[in-house]
Amino acid sequence: MNTQLSHEELTSLKRQAAEARSLIIKTVHHAGAGHVGGPMSAVDLLVSLYFNEMKVDTQDPHAENRDRFVLSKGHSAIGLYSVLAVKGYCPIEELNTFDSINSRLQGHPDMTALPGLDMSTGSLGQGISAAVGMALGAKLQNKEFRTYCMIGDGESQEGQVWEAADIASKYELDNLVVIMDYNKLQQFGWDGKETVREVPVINPEKRWEAFGWNVITCDGHDFTEIKQAFDEAKQTSGKPTIIIANTVKGKGVSFMENAYLWHSRIPTDEELSSAIKELEVGV
User: d(Cα 96, Cα 79) in Å, to the nearest integer?
Assistant: First the structure.
């Protein structure tokens, strides 16, 4: 299995990620609502999934044999919408309707509204249970599709995450890959100091190993490492895989990176302009 990316593939992925990040910031600014930090940390992982990993077809979004994806950290929906738009699931212009009444692009994913969404999410900790159900269903029906699920490190404080982890291990769901967006910074849970936040999950690798999972650690902003992690997951038999992706909240814009206030802050006109310029230079 070729675990390397060609120069052309790597360049394309970087450009798609930069475009998605620009769309996130523009959309949140336009809507006057939405999250920024978490979607920005997840973009490279989402781009890798939709452009290099999953078997999906924008012309047949409900294909029975398609790979499934569940965004358990549903508040980062604008990150997923932006990648779906770049992929072609919906017009990029439709992002201007984000969070509006009757829009297909609500603040949290609605699987009944937009083709390409496999699960409605938003209540933290619940998405992984749906992903486990999809993977188990595939096993029981001898289907070959794989299920991918992105969880946040903050939502991993929910007990339901660990109940799902236990069941996935019990039934040896090697067709399930969970990706933890391990940006180590949540909006709440601080220790009283204005700029200091406790890391939501300490040593997640050992926790998931204890639940019987195959554990892979990677740089969640390095497309080659991400591909290698997905390739290793495919070669794993008899147990589900968790990819602990080390990421930076607000990745791509210097004044947003590792700043908890950008969890859901709306950029000003000046901040929007500065962020877009920075993203353009970074391509």
Answer: 14
- Three-state DSSP state, 139: helix
Task: With CA atoms as reference, report the closest residue to 128 among 174, 203, 180, 171.
Answer: 180
The tens digit of pLDDT for each residue in 215-228 reads 999 999 999 999 99
Half-sphere exposure for 114 (CA within 13 Å, toward CB): 28
Query: In this structure, are residues 245 and 218 in contact, taking their beta carbons and an 8 Å threshold?
Result: yes
pTM above 0.90, yes or no: yes
**Residues 153-210: pLDDT tens digits?**
999 999 999 999 999 999 999 999 999 999 998 876 555 555 667 788 999 999 999 9
For residues 149 and 165, give the distance between their C-alpha atoms in angstroms, rounded to a whole number: 12
- DSSP letter at 156 equals G
- Rg, Å, the chain Cα set: 18
